[in-house]
Every structure is written in structure tokens, then in C-alpha cells.
Design goal:
The complex is a heterodimer of chains A (about 180) and B (about 575).
Chain A: E1 7-16, H1 21-31, E2 36-43, E3 49-58, H2 60-72, E4 76-82, E5 87-98, H3 102-114, E6 118-122, E7 126-133, H4 135-144, E8 149-155, E9 159-162, H5 173-181
Antiparallel strand pairs in A: 1-3, 1-4, 2-3, 5-7, 5-8, 5-9, 6-7
Chain B: E1 2-4, H1 5-15, E2 20-23, H2 30-38, E3 44-47, H3 51-65, E4 69-73, H4 77-91, E5 96-102, H5 118-122, E6 128-132, H6 135-150, E7 157-162, H7 163-167, E8 169-171, H8 184-191, H9 193-196, H10 203-215, E9 219-223, H11 225-229, H12 233-243, E10 247-249, E11 264-267, H13 274-282, E12 285-289, H14 295-298, E13 309-314, E14 328-331, H15 334-344, H16 351-357, H17 375-385, E15 391-394, H18 398-406, E16 415-416, H19 426-437, E17 443-448, H20 449-455, H21 459-464, E18 470-475, H22 480-489, H23 505-511, E19 515-519, H24 522-539, E20 543-548
Parallel strand pairs in B: 2-3, 2-4, 4-5, 5-7, 6-7, 9-10, 9-12, 10-11, 12-13, 13-14, 15-16, 15-17, 17-18, 18-20, 19-20
Antiparallel strand pairs in B: 1-8
Helix pairs in contact in B: 1-2, 1-6, 3-4, 3-19, 10-15, 12-15, 17-18, 17-24
The chains are: A alpha+beta (about 180), B alpha/beta (about 575).
Chain lengths: ~180, ~575
């Protein structure tokens, strides 16, 4: 694979669940002038640690440099550049569609059904659809619903995990090397 | 015992063994200054003319003593005035803890008088920073801040304390320094999964390097700033002698390897010596110790050390492969890595290779007409008159390169220079910090007329505290380094670089209560330096020696940015 081709890279970052940490992490992207395509943050099974999933459009080499700069930050525990083929990615999309007549409503409901999406709110003139999927699936439902009038659309940002037993916390030699520089003794 | 927040801070400073702080008072830090008044028998506060001067002084103190520097400033403009100093310390990995106070809790976020998001402003230029909003966290945060500043790759830490916290009261319990890691924030940091790992043991990596060294017939070493921070100059000397390799020294590496050692090829990079740059170009193994391959060192990265396998020894893993792709790396404190490495190496002989490298000059010769002073003459006379262990603090520009090329440094902390950030105005502040930290040494402040004008207000600090600093002013009436680029690459269009203006530096020095003298020849300079040295010893009085240098003098050699390291445009 050509390392200089720009594409979407997904980074998973484990950080201290503290004030200012997100700001420090996102600053790294600002510094290099990268736009964050997607960002999702939430606490993990350990309440002191949050997991940040970031998507950024760049080439492989720069993505690796970004990871290294992130690993250097004191509140960052580990960083992994997720392999597209070996990870599962999901995003929650909420779409509020205008349904001024029964025909439009039926069409919207049918599309939602095809995508196994849920109708989570209905009013006389609108319905709100919730769908969980990867980028491709969510883009597809969005474009099909384009025939109806989309009033609002919101997405949570991509979250991702590796398949199988692989985790972000693997105790590699490289991780030991990064941790060495962050020793506080 | 129950103490006020500001008193807790003083106690925490004493826990760290701090006896000197630099700073400038103001509205929100008034409680800290009230406590400093109370603790004045234990903590000496040095009042500078400007917060920037204080920040550089704390940095110079840290670099020259190896201790953590401490600097205090008020909210808003006080804190923003520190930023150049913080960034300088950050780029050069100098351990300094900066304290600032912010407005009270009721006023924060309301654009109150002298309010500033100090933590936000300083985030990109600190190793880490803290906003203290709760007095119960204060001691714990200060302890963590000092540990962070000095551990791993050292760097600056900012603690911004809400002014309410400095007057609130809380329980304070003394904890000896060795036990800090058991409590509070540091204990949490120690418990992190990352700290369950033993410090990385690089043994296997070292063995691989030993093999590479044994296979190499043309090895070359770069001594970087990491050697200075780790104070590994002894290990470095043994290492270079064992593998019998030439050593090129970076700007930050000055003092990491003796500049007079026969293995030294001098400075490397844009203004590196021919021996250094030709050596890098032809070597078959390049071992960079504590060097991050800044673009002023590598120039064109694709052609840098093009015939060599590159090995990087660094404490910070993120420096590996950042600027230059390496073939092997070892992570660790370079003192420890070199210690282990030296035990595994056998004496080598590379006479033929050395003969080739040292067939190129290690230092530039300047033409002398016997009348005007050349930059080389200035440093020669100064080296002859001043003691060998003189600490040299420089500003930024041509004089800085001359000082690094022509003075020879033999121990870490002897050369204080803003290598990474390149902050003009660093020198005098740093010299003040160095003189306070090293009262028995002679401190030489090497500056240019452009840099000196930036922070010469600190002459009042020098005079007030009887700091006998000798300022050697390379006065060419120009912003020499930019002018040099304009000469060589902009067809001599000297846009805004001619400084044909005041002040009269002799009168300026006298106005501040230090001696001033202008010299035009080698002989005059020698007499002036001898008199200055006498004044230093007998009267603890500083001096400004204004040396007339011709504006057309160039820093030589020079390789323009982006070109291969051997494409010298001036020899």
C-alpha cells in the first residue's frame, strides 16, 4: 500500500477522564492543520479512563506521527491506529424527516425498515429515525431519505473496536518505550 | 497544621529544596508575595524588570544548576509575558515550574480585570499544566508538577492558582520528597497501567548497536541536548574514545562533549563545520545521542547521512522517526544507555576514517586586517582572559553561532542558549539565573545589538543583586543573521535590518549602574576584559563591553535551508 495516499484513518485513544484532556488531544490535530472528520468520546468500563475515537483524513505516515505525538501526552494511556480490515466501526445517526402526507411517511418508514432502523419519535408532521451503522450504511440511508425533506440530522461520531481478542491495551515493546519517557519518578 | 494556600505553596517549595525563585508581583499573586515576605529567610525572591526576564532567569538557573527553576507571575499580562520563556524552556527541555494566579472564582470566565485563560494559552508549550480551583489539591498538584518537570524528558509545567485558593486555609502535612510518589496526584499517576511496567530495559537493543558498531568502519556520533540534560558528558567521552569516532555537536549539545577534545568536529548543520557536515555525509554509521534532528541540523532530510545506517538514542520515543527515518533506536536516559554500552564495547581504531574527516576544517578562519575586530578574535580574546569554566549565556543571531563555533564548552550547563525556540532576549535573563545559581563562576553574556535591545532592562536586576555578569556585545549595527540571508539570498536588499540607531550602550550601562566600554581592536578588548574580570572579583560589578564588529561579517560556513548538508554557499 502506498503510504502517501490520503484516506480516512481511525485512531483510538485511551485517556485520563479529566478536565482539559480532550482539549489537549484535539490540539494535536489543530497544530498540524488537520480537520477532525469524526470524534466520539465516552468513559470506559474503568470510570477513570475515557476512550476517544477520532477519524482524520491524511496519509499513513502522518497518521503514525500523530499517534506518536499523542502517545507522548501525559494523560494519554495508549493510542492505536485501527486497521480498516480488522476493526468494526459503528455510528448512531438520528434523522428527523418532514412527513407532510401519508405517502411521504410511508416511504420514510419503508426505507427505515429496509435499513433495520428504528422510528424513535413520531408526530403529525415528522418522524425521527435512529440507525446504527458504519459510514457506508449511514451514507446510504441518508441519500435515500434525501427525497423526503430532512429537517435535522445528527451523528454520534464513529466508535470502533478491533475484531477478536485484540485490544488497545496490548503490552508491546513500543508501548513500554513510550511509557519510559512518561515515568514520573 | 492549618495553613493559608500561599503558605502551603511556600512549604511545598521547601519540600523540593527550592531556595531561589524569580518573579514579578501583581494583584492576584499578592497573597503569594505576602507569604514570600514571611519566608524571606528561607526563600530568596529575585525581582526582575519584566516577567519575560524572570522566565528566562528561572530557565537559565535550571539549565546551569540541573535543579528545577521556579518562576512566579500574576494573572493576565503577567502570565502572557511568561509565554516566550515557557516556550523556550519547552523547546529545549528545561525543567521549570511556573506559578501564576488567576482571578477569583466569582470572576473567572467573566473577562474580569487581568483575566486570562492561562492554562489554555500555555497548553501547547508545557509538558503539562494545572488549574488549581480547590485548596485541598494544591500541595498534591505542586508535588506532581515538580516531579513532571524533572522526570523523563524534562520540561516546563505551569500551575495557575485561583487567587481565592491562595488565601483559603487547609490542612498541610509535610511529606519528604522521596515519599511524594505515595500520595495524592503522583500516587494516581504511579497506579496508571503504564506505570505497572518496569522502566524499559534496552539490553537487546544495545547489543544490536554493539554489532552495528563492530561492523562499521566509518562511525560518526552526534552529541545532542539530551547528553547535556542527562549530564552524561563523562559517558559520552568514554563512548567516543572507545569507538574512536569523530563527534559532531549540535547547538543544544554544547557542553555534552568537550569542545577541545581531538575527536570533536565542531558544530553540525546550517552553520556546522566542514568536518562535521562532510563526516555526516560520508559516514557508514551515524549514532545520534539525545538529538531530535531539527531541520537546522539535517537540512535536506532525504540526503542527510545518505550513506549511513542511522541509530537514535533518546528518552522520548516520539522523537524516533519523527524527522529522520532511523535504522535502529534505543530508548532510555542516555547516561544509563551509554554506561551499559561502554561496558560492552572493545577499543576500536578508525585512524584512517578520522584522517579523512579531520582533513576538513573544524573551525572557520576569518581574514584579519589588524584594525577591525573579527568575531573569531572576540571569542579568542575572551577565551584567553576568562577562566575555563566560564558559563556562557547567549542571545539569538550571528553572535550566538559565533559563540557556539568559537568558544569551547567542556561540561553540561556551561552553554546556555535558546537553540530550539530561538528567542532573542533570552541571554541576559539566563545569565542572571546562571549567576545566581553559580555565584562563584564567571558568567559571560554574549549578545548582539538587536537581541540586547530587547531585554536590556534586566541590567537593573544585574546591578541590584550585585551579579557581576560580563556582557560581550557584538555590535554590528544590524540584525546580522537576517541581514546575512538578505546578503546571500535577497540580493542585498537590507529590509529593516539596519539598526543605525541608539542607544549608546556605554551610557546605557552606566545609567543602570554597571560599567560600560566600547572597544574597536583586539588590544582594547583584552584590556577591557581584564579590567572587567578584576571588577567581577573585587567589586562584584557587571560590565557591558560593546565590541565594534563590521556589519558585513558573516557566520561561516553556511548551508542554505533545504539543501544537502554539504552544499556550502560560504566556506
Amino acid at each position: 500500500m502506498d503510504n502517501s495516499i490520503k484516506r480516512i484513518h481511525t485512531l483510538a485513544v485511551l485517556v485520563d477522564n479529566e478536565a482539559g484532556v480532550l482539549s489537549q488531544v484535539s490540539r494535536m490535530f489543530t497544530r498540524k492543520g488537520y480537520n477532525i472528520e469524526s470524534l466520539a468520546v465516552g468513559v470506559t468500563h474503568d470510570p477513570t479512563i475515557s476512550r476517544i475515537t477520532i477519524e482524520v483524513h491524511t496519509d499513513y505516515e502522518r497518521a503514525c506521527l500523530l499517534c506518536n505525538q499523542l502517545r507522548k501526552l501525559l494523560p494519554v494511556h495508549s493510542v492505536k491506529l485501527l486497521n480498516n480490515d480488522n476493526s468494526i466501526k459503528r455510528e448512531l445517526l438520528l434523522i428527523k424527516v418532514a412527513t407532510p402526507d401519508i405517502a411521504t411517511r410511508n416511504e420514510a418508514v419503508q426505507i427505515a425498515n429496509i435499513f433495520r432502523a428504528n422510528i424513535i419519535d413520531v408526530s403529525k408532521e415528522s418522524i425521527t429515525i435512529a440507525v446504527v451503522g458504519d459510514n457506508d450504511k449511514n451514507a446510504a440511508i441518508e441519500s435515500l431519505l434525501d427525497n423526503c425533506t430532512i429537517l435535522e440530522l445528527v451523528r454520534t461520531g464513529i466508535v470502533a473496536l478491533e475484531r477478536g481478542m485484540n485490544t488497545i491495551d496490548e503490552d508491546t515493546k513500543e508501548k513500554g518505550e513510550f511509557d519510559y519517557g512518561k515515568n514520573v519518578l | 497544621m492549618k495553613l493559608k494556600g500561599s503558605d502551603i505553596m511556600m512549604e511545598c517549595l521547601l519540600e523540593q529544596g527550592v531556595d531561589t525563585v524569580f518573579g514579578y508581583p501583581g494583584g492576584t499573586v499578592i497573597n503569594l508575595y505576602d507569604s514570600l515576605y514571611k519566608y524571606s529567610d528561607k526563600i530568596n525572591h529575585v525581582l526582575t524588570a519584566h516577567e519575560q526576564g524572570a522566565s528566562h532567569a528561572a530557565d537559565g538557573y535550571a539549565r546551569s544548576t540541573g535543579k528545577v527553576g521556579v518562576c512566579i507571575a500574576t494573572s493576565g499580562p503577567g502570565a502572557t509575558n511568561l509565554t516566550t520563556g515557557i516556550a523556550t524552556a519547552f523547546m529545549d527541555s528545561s525543567p521549570v515550574v511556573f506559578f501564576s494566579c488567576n482571578v477569583g472564582e466569582n470572576f473567572i470566565g467573566k473577562d474580569s480585570f487581568q483575566e486570562c485563560d492561562t492554562v489554555g494559552v500555555t497548553m501547547p508549550i508545557t509538558k503539562c499544566n494545572y488549574l488549581v480551583t480547590d485548596i485541598d489539591d494544591l500541595a498534591s498538584i505542586i508535588r506532581a508538577a515538580f516531579a513532571m518537570a524533572r522526570s523523563g524528558r524534562p520540561g516546563p509545567v505551569v500551575i495557575d492558582i485561583l487567587t481565592d485558593v491562595t488565601k483559603a486555609e487547609a490542612e498541610y502535612e509535610y511529606i519528604p520528597l522521596e515519599e511524594h510518589y505515595k500520595y495524592g496526584k503522583l500516587a494516581t499517576l504511579m497506579k496508571r497501567p503504564t506505570h505497572n511496567l518496569k522502566p524499559h530495559e534496552p539490553e537487546g537493543d544495545i547489543d544490536k548497536l554493539v554489532d552495528m558498531i563492530n561492523e562499521s568502519s566509518k562511525p560518526m556520533i552526534i552529541c545532542g541536548g539530551g547528553v547535556v540534560r542527562a549530564r552524561a558528558h563523562e559517558e559520552m567521552r568514554t563512548f567516543a574514545n572507545l569507538i574512536d569516532s569523530p563527534v559532531a555537536i549540535t547547538v543544544m549539545g554544547g557542553g555534552g562533549f568537550n569542545g577541545l577534545d581531538p575527536l570533536t568536529t565542531g558544530m553540525i548543520g546550517m552553520h556546522g563545520s566542514q568536518a562535521s557536515n562532510m563526516g555526516i555525509d560520508s559516514c557508514d554509521l551515524l549514532i545520534a545521542v539525545g538529538c531530535r534532528f531539527a531541520e537546522r541540523v539535517t537540512l535536506d532530510v532525504d540526503q542527510f547521512a545518505r550513506n549511513a545506517k542511522i541509530v537514535q538514542i533518546d528518552i522520548d520515543r516520539s522523537e524516533i522517526d519523527k524527522n529522520v527515518k532511523t535504522d535502529h533506536h534505543i530508548i532510555g536516559d542516555c547516561k544509563r544507555v551509554l554506561e551499559i554500552l561502554n561496558k560492552k564495547l572493545e577499543q576500536q581504531d578508525h585512524s584512517k576514517w578520522k584522517e579523512y574527516v579531520f582533513s576538513f576544517p573544524t573551525e572557520t578562519k576569518y581574514e584579519e586586517d589588524g584594525e577591525t575586530l573579527t568575531p573569531k578574535q572576540v571569542s579568542d580574546v575572551a577565551s584567553e582572559v576568562l577562566p575555563e569554566d566560564t558559563i556562557v549565556a547567549t542571545d539569538v543571531g550571528q553572535h550566538q553561532m559565533w559563540a557556539i563555533q568559537h568558544f569551547h564548552y567542556s561540561y553540561p550547563g556551561q552553554l546556555l542558549t535558546s537553540g530550539g525556540f530561538g528567542a532573542m532576549g533570552f541571554g541576559l535573563g539566563a545569565a542572571i539565573g546562571a549567576q545566581i545559581g553559580n555565584p562563584d563562576k564567571v558568567v559571560l553574556h554574549v549578545t548582539g545589538d538587536g537581541s540586547f535591545r530587547m531585554n536590556c532592562n534586566e541590567l537593573c536586576t544585574e546591578e541590584y543583586y550585585n551579579l557581576p555578569i560580563i556582557t560581550l556585545l557584538y555590535n554590528n549595527g544590524a540584525l546580522g543573521m537576517v541581514r546575512q540571508w538578505q546578503s546571500l539570498m535577497y540580493d542585498k536588499r537590507y529590509s529593516q535590518t539596519t539598526l543605525d540607531r541608539g542607544p549608546d550602550f556605554v551610557k546605557l550601562a552606566e545609567a543602570y549602574g554597571v560599567s560600560g566600554i566600547r572597544v574597536h581592536t583586539k588590544e582594547e578588548l583584552k584590556l577591557a576584559l581584564e579590567a572587567a574580570l578584576k571588577d567581577v572579583k573585587e567589586n562584584r560589578k557587571g560590565c557591558v563591553i560593546d565590541c565594534a564588529i563590521h556589519a558585513n561579517e558573516l557566520v561561516r560556513p553556511m548551508v542554505p535551508g533545504g539543501k544537502s548538508i554539504t552544499s556550502f554557499i560560504v566556506d
